[in-house]
Amino acid sequence: MGDDHISKDRAEEHAVKEYRSGMPATPPSGPYEESAERASRTLWGDAWGRLRRNRLALVALGWLVIVAIAAVSADAWVPRVFGSPIRIDTVRAMRDRLQNPSFAHPLGTDDLGRDIFARVVYGSRISLSVGILAVMVSVVIGLILGSLSGYYSGFVDTLIMRVADVFLAFPYILFAILLLSVLPKSQRGIVPVFLTIGVLGWPSIARVFRSSILSVKENDYIDAGRALGASDLRLMMRHIMPNAIAPIVVYATMSVGGAILTEAALSFLGLGIAPPTPSWGRMIEDGRVYLTSNPGLVFWPGLAILSTVLAFTLLGDGIRDALDVKLKD
Amino acid sequence: MTEGLLKVDGLKMYFHTRDGVVKAVDGVSYSLDRGETLGVVGESGSGKSVTALTMMRLIPMPPGKVEGGDVLFKGESLLAMKEDDVRHIRGNRIAMIFQDPMTSLNPVYRIGHQIAEPLMIHKGMSRREAWSRGLELLDLVGIPNPSQRARDYPHQFSGGMRQRAMIAMALACDPDILIADEPTTALDVTIQAQILELMVELQAKTGSAIILITHDLGVVADMADRILVMYAGRPVEYGAAETVFYTPLHPYTWGLLDSLPRYDIEDKGELCPIDGQPPSLIDVPSGCAFHPRCPHARDRCRVETPVLREVASGHHSACHFSDDPSFRRENVACRVGGA
Prior knowledge:
The complex is a heterodimer.
Chain A: H1 2-20, H2 43-51, H3 55-82, H4 90-95, H5 116-151, H6 155-169, H7 172-181, H8 190-217, H9 220-227, H10 232-244, H11 246-268, H12 280-287, H13 296-323
Helix pairs in contact in A: 1-8, 1-11, 2-13, 3-5, 3-13, 5-6, 5-8, 5-11, 5-13, 6-8, 7-8, 8-10, 8-11, 9-10, 11-12, 11-13, 12-13
Chain B: E1 6-17, E2 20-32, E3 37-41, H1 48-55, E4 64-73, E5 76-77, H2 83-89, E6 94-97, H3 111-122, H4 127-140, H5 146-149, H6 159-171, E7 177-181, H7 189-206, E8 209-214, H8 217-223, E9 226-231, E10 234-240, H9 241-246, H10 251-258, H11 299-303, E11 309-312, E12 315-317
Parallel strand pairs in B: 3-8, 3-9, 6-7, 7-8
Antiparallel strand pairs in B: 1-2, 1-4, 4-5, 9-10, 10-12, 11-12
Helix pairs in contact in B: 3-4, 3-6, 4-6, 6-7
């Protein structure tokens, strides 16, 4: 899991770099005479325009949309076409066991006769929901603590940042294992998994957001806002937040990939989602024994993890570039 | 003197830093009445802006600390007021225009929204009411086609237009006092004149008082009724604009005037700037803070701190020798350009 940490730090660096490169402070001003008729463009509208020209990011986005559609619509077609990805019965386990890819089972079947494609599709539900929910938990905690820390410097800042340091100093995966192993196996649904990953992920978000706030806070328009009589809450929510949020969008997108990886790792270790619910990490663990005879059991869920995590990273990268006004045109 | 609109009385604002105590504002007093314009002049770091920010309670404390004096707005102390009450005065009764219009507008909101904001905060207007009032204000400050331009973002405005928008924001709630902190420094010369003209024009309409902070004597000459010259956080000369200009009393004011190119006199000698640098405010020179740079300094200046006192009617100076009628600008030649 060392790799996971490295990629996390890199993403964090990215996000900060993205910000430093001077996101919204002084956008170039064009000649204003002709602009009266021109449609106003927002920062996000601009960013979308630039993202649309980034082919790699678009492919990533397209892939994620396909995965998401498959995950959401799975109940409507997968069981009917490929059979239940979960149900285990003796007949099926005997008859369909470890089949090679065929027309009926495009990716073959596993050791219990279940269709691998169906299980990969259902696995995407777990991976996507755990990934997204975990990051949402991190973002909510991280934004609240990061904004408190950045806005009120001094004691509050020190306290929150030292707690964050403690969290970051803790071996991430060990902490997750510890939290999850306390639960009895029967209760291991998706909720404890994403809560654990989410709670462990907040310090990085808080740090990125704090540094972003610290630099936005120095801007004259914050002083101007205060001089207009805006309250602390208003300054924070309406003036600082919208200007400081961009790095978080980038970082959160990349973190979804990380959270999916962590879920896979936990499931692989037998601490994630309890079987028979299909999860990509769990499928790799289950197929491990057949690695030499039926490598498809490991390969397909592995490819699913790889492509999805990569897509989130590329999309995050694309968003970072799109939000960077200096790379404009 | 009657109870003025604003009365600053012996205000002292010190910053406690690791390197020592920075005496940014060290005993500043002035008063301001409705419809009046006060020009505050001085070099960078002379405490002009800090005085204004202290008044608005916009200085973070710590490190800042008010060491003495008071600011009375309509007879009420701004420094003793509760934060919530001060917030109600900021942008409402006392508004501020900042130096750099390029960075003083929030890049993520439309101009119209930003002008509407103080109206929503202070006047309890709905978004719609505030927006349409904002359009009137944009029109007032001379932005053509306001209903369209209000939908623009700040980066679509030029510098001069942004400063106009800032003025519209500041005037939104019809403030009693408008503090303009170097409102034209960041603008082109041609735009500067327009902005100043606009301020004079709007003052005539609204009757608000203006505190104009600048290091440009030309700017105050046109606009101010009274002038306060500051040096090293202290006031050195204070009086009606004409008297400060035509019969300045303090050698520092002479220096400022001599540093300006003149095109109204025949004999064009060299300019004579003030030698040296403004002092560090941590380690202000003893006696008169200006003595190390003053060509007329004597022993007394090094030891005794001069106080600001009324020399002629309504004309104050903080120089030991201002009482001597022969110690005047026309009698002491400027060293470089003079005879």
